[in-house]
Amino acid sequence: MWPCITICRPLLLKLRSRYAFSKDTRQTLVSPSKLIFRPSASCTGVGKKWTRPTGYDTGLKTYNSLTKQKEPLILAQEGIATWYSCGPTVYDHAHLGHACSYVRFDIIQRVLSRVFGINVIHVMVITDIDDKIIRRALEVLPPAVYLRVTENIPQIVAFIEGIIRNEHAYATKQGDVYFDIGSIGDRYGKLMGAGDATGEPGDREKRDSRDFALWKASKPQEPSWESPWGKGRPGWHIECSTIASSVFGSQLDIHSGGIDLAFPHHENEIAQCEAYHQSGQWGNYFLHSGHLHLKGSAEKMSKSLNNYITIKDFLESYSANEFRMFCLLTKYRSAIDYSDASLNEARSSLATITAFTHDAQAYMRGQLQCQAVEEGALWERLAETKANVVRALADDFDTPRVVNAIMSLVYHGNRHLQPITKPDRSPRSPAVFGAFLAYIREVFEVLGVDLLDRKEAHSVDSSGTLENVVEQLARFRSDVRAFALSVQDTPPGEPAHASPSPCSEKLPLLKACDTLRKDLASMGVHIRDRGPNSTWEISQKRPAGQDKK
């Protein structure tokens, strides 16, 4: 499916980029207690300037929040992407805001691994929450490693001690530990700029209002652990820095999260990791997903604003496939409006693809008679679509362009599947439609959309008995309908009717056939009459209340 990517990749360096303190920085001693790390002129020249990594050029471009533009995606090791993401803080039921970020980055990781052959090593920290509903209900691939904060307290304490040793943090008499932003000079603010920084609430012993907590002294009714500074708990940002470093060390290819995490969370993660590792650039690429908004609201969906929809409630009206298509229809970086109209657009797109699939299958089985197909033009259209899809995915994972390319392919396929009443003995071209269907299914499988509804079909009947029963029932109905539609020969000497129609005695049979078709449709079995022939399909039954939408 994706052969052109391998041959289009340029010959690339395989040397892993390492930003060692001895090479990339120089020391400027400004006081006995403060050490500023400034990039050397040979490295970046400016404290916040991004350094293009050396290593393996994937041939892709991705929007990097560090530079505010698309950059070539260069990995430290060929065929491997180290990826860290902050898990959501879910206090009770996971909502669609969490799910949207999960699904969007799941799509990107699927594309990297299944289209471009990159092994994504994904690590996620979770704040002792259970996000199984997201993975189970929305088919999100699990990370390679899940790490819980409470199981890594000793590592967090050691990480803080390392930052203190490097003279980038200090402890207060109250038992708090703060990161010393002044110690890194103009290197703070790589994502948002130092001018945008606002300080966290804290005690009077803070050296700078922007200094943020690495360790907080214990308070009544709060969980706490022992540390060199007394009992307390980790600060919010230090958890991710410690866990990411414990797995990936001093360098990370990709860091992801919602745009709301860019500041202060990711900004402070960068400061902590570069201070601990004494490196000029810890994370090479920061990817941020846009917020999910309720239609008409300027605020993101969140529990604190009481404007959220739980995944459980959502799945009472829509399917996981429909939500994933909803995410595919917008760029992952864009804000996205949640509304019945936007969900119905996703549903309509899937319905169009499903209808084309059934028509193409009917044509391939000889149940749908059409005029001669322009087979050569369709093969060319398929090749063009494949190239367009790869180009779109290589350009910052542009899934709306991918969906548009597939829908255009479906449109051109449908143009050749217009039924005719009388067979004209034209040559048939089933192979090209088989190739269309195989490719469309493969693309959406890569993106996490199951067009075959394999999971639902397996849960209904894994032995195929249901399909066999429906086939026999549909065949019997077709025979009855064909008999009812048959016209008696005109007796000799009587004038022939201009438009012969079934005799009145057979009309109840036609009515019974129509009634059966309608009754079966309500059960998820859809029969389509195509002239004298009929085809059928079993679709996923919509949850109760869905039709009201």
SSE layout and pairings?
Blueprint: H1 3-8, H2 21-24, E1 25-31, E2 34-39, E3 56-64, E4 69-75, E5 80-86, H3 96-114, E6 119-126, H4 132-138, E7 145-148, H5 153-165, E8 169-171, E9 177-179, E10 213-217, E11 232-234, H6 236-248, E12 252-258, H7 262-277, E13 283-289, E14 292-294, H8 311-314, H9 320-328, E15 336-338, H10 340-364, H11 375-394, H12 399-415, H13 430-447, H14 454-460, H15 465-485, H16 507-521, E16 525-530, E17 533-538
Parallel strand pairs: 5-6, 5-12, 6-7, 12-13, 14-15
Antiparallel strand pairs: 1-2, 3-4, 8-9, 9-10, 10-11, 16-17
Helix pairs in contact: 3-9, 5-6, 6-7, 9-10, 10-12, 10-13, 11-12, 11-13, 15-16
Helix content estimate = 25-40%
Q: What gap, in angstroms, lies between the N and C termini?
A: 37 Å
Count of helical stretches:
16
Number of strands: 17
Flag low-confidence runs: 1-46, 456-463, 543-549
**Rg value:** 30 Å
| Main sheet specs | 5 strands, parallel
General form? elongated
Structural class: alpha/beta
Strand order in the sheet with the most strands:
7-6-5-12-13
Task: Give the overall pLDDT as a whole number.
Answer: 83
What is the percentage of strand-forming residues?
Answer: 15-25%
